Amino acid sequence: MTYCVSIATDSGLVFVSDSRTNAGVDVKNTYSKMYGFGVPGERQFTILTSGNLATSQSVISRIKKDLKLEGPNLFNFGHMTDVAEYIGEVSCNAQSKTKAADINVESYFLVGGQIGDQRHSVYLVYPQGNYISTSQDTTYLQIGESKYGKPILDRILSPGVSLETAAMCALVSMDSTIRSNLTVGPPIELSIYEVGSLAQGRYYRFDEDSKYLRRLKRSWDQALKDAFKTLPPVAWSATWDQRQDGDGRQELL
Amino acid sequence: MTYCVSIATDSGLVFVSDSRTNAGVDVKNTYSKMYGFGVPGERQFTILTSGNLATSQSVISRIKKDLKLEGPNLFNFGHMTDVAEYIGEVSCNAQSKTKAADINVESYFLVGGQIGDQRHSVYLVYPQGNYISTSQDTTYLQIGESKYGKPILDRILSPGVSLETAAMCALVSMDSTIRSNLTVGPPIELSIYEVGSLAQGRYYRFDEDSKYLRRLKRSWDQALKDAFKTLPPVAWSATWDQRQDGDGRQELL
Questions:
Q1: Alpha-carbon distance B104 to nearest alpha carbon in chain A (angstroms)
Q2: What are the pLDDT digits (tens) for B107-161?
Q3: What is the number of helices (H) and of strands (E) in chain A?
Q4: How many CB pairs under 8 A join A and B?
Q5: Quick check: A151 and B227 CB within 8 A?
Q6: Candidates 3.60.20.10, 1.20.1250.20, 3.40.50.300, 3.10.450.50; correct CATH number of A3-252?
């Protein structure tokens, strides 16, 4: 499995991905799932992948090959939608080439970036080649094992949050997922793109023994424990209700 | 779907369940999934259900019928394992009675309680009739849509936490699930059993417009936002790394 999340705020884009791939629990490998492409001053893209590793790798290598050809590629598309459309086509071709009746060769892609002065955005490209994008109401998109890490994103993210907060939120979301799911693991990659910079963003790679990740985890666990002390005790609730029947054998409901 | 969680701490038991049942998205109903049974001073049990509603209801009604008969029932079993074993058998019988080739009639049950001076505990009973129990290392068990609400339980719970904290943690876990999943919804039921009391615990029912739940949600959201201010900024990480190749077209990896 995999967990990748990408966030689009007013001030830029955040990308976080894990690096664990597995076929069953006894075939476990480490691959980066984050790829950056760009022409400084003109356009910048980051692509995250999940799903069938062979399909994902074939799509990425095809994207890189196309960059060296005259045809349509990441460096000459006019809009982010063209980029999403293109990745969808490449993905469908890669899947159709694989003869697999009983194996799932589907892959999902998150592609985010900015072209010139157009609005920065993130697209989720489905294995079928269609895609959806972030919006003012939907500031993030996930692929892979997305459930564990979703609540914190829902509670914290909004178009107005800073890139720092969005990045920390994505890392906490990743940490929650890693704790709960064996198939998601470090190294964790983080990329932060500042809107309008059209330059490669800040890129971080956190290994298993990363001091920063350990510190973030400790701080967050402590912060949550402290947060509970600020919550209104259940005892304050007026709805405490006791039901008892005649012969001393009570039932709720 | 459903979300139910039960927590066993040194000081007692906490049970939380939602009340939404659905068959598809356009057949939505409200049923309690929490059932309490007990003989004050002798034994106390709480049962939570998920899965096929017909199976769950048939199991509960069979349990109630048995209470009025001479045979083995909740009021004469000697150990919690007997109770789990019994619910597993009743569940298997209920499923086998249903002729359904293409419908899933499986149900899951959480049963927790205490008999006399024995150790209090919670059991998860699978549709196959087998079961697992809480332990010092595993202080909680979930049934239904369990992923969204798991991280907060993993971060907060330990055998030593107070019943108040465990109850609030379960409610926050429920709130996270309700936010992220349409098939889980209020009213929320909460039951808190104090170890050794052998009396029906505190019982709360929170409706959709519950002032307490709204307040808990607001306080938690605020507490999380504040918590982020205490986290070490990503900028402090030493691993910022920039990769650029010759012709100004850089790639990460």
A1: 23
A2: 999 999 999 999 999 999 999 999 999 998 999 999 999 999 999 999 999 999 9
A3: 5, 13
A4: 213
A5: no
A6: 3.60.20.10
